[in-house]
Design brief:
382 residues, 17 helices, 6 strands, globular
C-alpha cells in the first residue's frame, strides 16, 4: 500500500496529473485495498449533510487527503459491476429479499421473459452473470413499465429495481444535473437504512433476506463516492471541470486487457510493451468507429460504452450544488419513507407516514407515482 501512495500517487501529483478517483470492480480484495489505501491518508476533509429525520446522525462525507499538499482522492466502485451485482442478488436462490409485505425472487423475472416481456430468454436461463447488456435491460424503463402494467402486485420487485438502478443511472446518465444525482444517491442510502431497520424490527435475518454483504458494501461505495466526487470537483477543482462519472470506472482497464488478450492470450509485461503501438490503433479505432449500444445485445458479456458521447451536457455537468443544495436534496430524497409505507412497513418511529413539505409549501409527489401515470395514462395502481 505504501507503494501506491508514495510511488504511484506521488508520481502523478509531481507530474501535474490530477487523479481524484480510485475505481475498483467490486471484488472483496479490491475493496479491501481501497479501505487500506484510505487508512493511509495523512488527513481527512469532513463534509456533513443534514439528515432529514430528527434524531438521526448527519451524513458524514470523509474525503481522504494525501501528502503535505492535502491531495483529495475518492474511492468508488464501477457502476456497471454494481448493476450486475443487484441483478445477481435478485436472481440468487440463496436468499429471499423481503421488502415489507413483498418479496423479490428469481421466478418473477422469469415471468417477464416467458410472458412476452422486454427480457430475453438468455437473460434468465443459462445466463451470463457478467453480461452488461442484460443487467442494463433489467433496470430499464421498459421493464418497469411492463411490470407496472401486467404485475402491479409485484410492488417490492418494482421498487427494488427502481431504487438500485436509479443509483446506477447517477453514474451512467450523460445529462443529469449533479444535484439530482446527489438526490438519487441519498434516496438509495435512506432506503437501505429503512430496509435494515425493518428487517431488524421484524426479526428477519439479514443473511437470508437482505442484499449480500458485498452488494451492501458496493452500494455504500457508490453512494458516498458520488457525493464525495461532487464535493472534490466543486471545491478542489474550482468547479471549472465537468464531472463525467461514467468515465470514472474500471471499464477502460477491462477493455485494454481484453484487447491485449486478443493479441496474445497469455501475455507478459514485455509482450505488453511491444503491443502498445497496436493497442493505440485499436483504441483509436474503437473511439472513432464503435457502434453505440442500443440495449439489445444478447449474451454479449462486457460491453464497453465509455466512448458513447451522445446527449452529453457539459454545461449541466459543470454546475455543482452547494452544501445547502445538498441538504435540500436530502429532504427530497427522504421520499424513501413513502416507498416503505407503500410496501406496508412505515419506518420505525414515524407511525403513519407523512410526506415532506417542499419549499413552496406543497406536497412532494413520488417520482414512481408520476412515472406510472405518465407511461400508462392510468391512475397509479399503488
Amino acid at each position: 500500500m505504501e507503494y501506491h501512495v508514495h510511488i504511484l500517487l506521488r508520481g502523478f501529483i509531481d507530474r501535474k496529473v490530477k487523479v481524484h478517483s480510485y475505481a475498483a470492480d467490486g471484488t472483496g480484495i479490491e475493496r479491501g485495498v481501497q479501505k487500506l489505501f484510505t487508512a493511509l491518508a495523512s488527513d481527512y476533509k469532513i463534509v456533513t449533510i443534514k439528515h432529514p429525520w430528527n434524531g438521526q446522525p448527519n451524513i458524514t462525507l470523509k474525503i481522504s487527503l494525501f501528502g503535505d499538499d492535502r491531495y483529495p482522492l475518492v474511492m468508488i466502485q464501477d457502476s456497471k459491476h454494481g448493476g450486475k451485482t443487484y441483478r445477481n442478488n435478485a436472481f440468487s436462490g440463496a436468499r429471499l429479499l423481503i421488502l415489507g409485505n413483498y418479496v423479490v425472487m428469481y421466478s418473477q423475472f422469469r415471468a417477464i421473459t416467458f410472458e412476452d416481456g422486454p427480457l430475453y430468454n438468455c437473460d434468465v436461463e443459462k445466463l451470463d452473470r457478467q453480461d452488461d447488456a442484460a443487467a442494463t435491460r433489467l433496470g430499464s424503463a421498459d421493464v418497469l413499465e411492463w411490470l407496472a402494467m401486467h404485475y402491479p402486485r409485484l410492488l417490492g420487485t418494482i421498487i427494488y429495481l427502481f431504487i438500485f438502478y436509479e443509483l446506477i443511472d447517477t453514474y451512467q446518465n450523460h445529462c443529469m444535473k449533479h444535484v439530482e444525482r446527489a438526490q438519487l444517491a441519498l434516496r438509495a442510502l435512506f432506503f437501505m437504512e429503512m430496509w435494515e431497520d425493518f428487517l431488524e424490527k421484524a426479526n428477519y435475518p439479514k443473511a437470508k433476506h437482505f442484499i449480500s454483504h458485498e452488494a451492501c458494501d458496493i452500494t455504500r461505495f457508490l453512494i458516498y463516492g458520488l457525493l464525495q466526487l461532487i464535493i472534490v470537483y466543486r471545491d478542489d477543482l474550482d468547479g471549472i471541470y465537468p464531472l463525467l462519472p461514467w468515465l470514472l470506472s474500471t471499464e477502460v482497464c477491462e477493455h485494454v486487457f481484453g484487447l491485449c488478450r486478443q493479441i496474445i492470450k497469455d501475455f507478459t509485461i514485455l509482450d505488453f510493451y511491444y503491443m502498445i503501438s497496436k493497442l493505440f490503433i485499436r483504441l483509436h479505432e474503437h473511439a472513432l468507429f464503435s457502434k453505440f449500444s442500443d440495449g439489445k445485445e444478447r449474451a454479449s458479456g462486457y460491453f464497453h460504452t465509455y466512448t458513447d458521447n451522445r446527449d452529453v451536457d457539459l454545461v449541466a455537468l459543470s454546475i455543482y450544488p452547494s452544501n445547502d443544495n445538498l441538504d435540500d436534496a436530502a429532504k427530497i430524497a427522504y421520499e424513501a419513507e413513502n416507498l416503505w409505507t407503500l410496501l406496508g412497513a412505515p419506518p420505525s418511529g414515524h407511525g403513519k407516514s407523512t410526506r415532506l413539505e417542499n419549499a413552496a409549501g406543497g406536497r412532494l409527489v413520488m417520482r414512481w407515482d408520476l412515472y406510472i401515470c405518465e407511461t400508462t395514462g392510468k391512475e397509479s395502481p399503488f
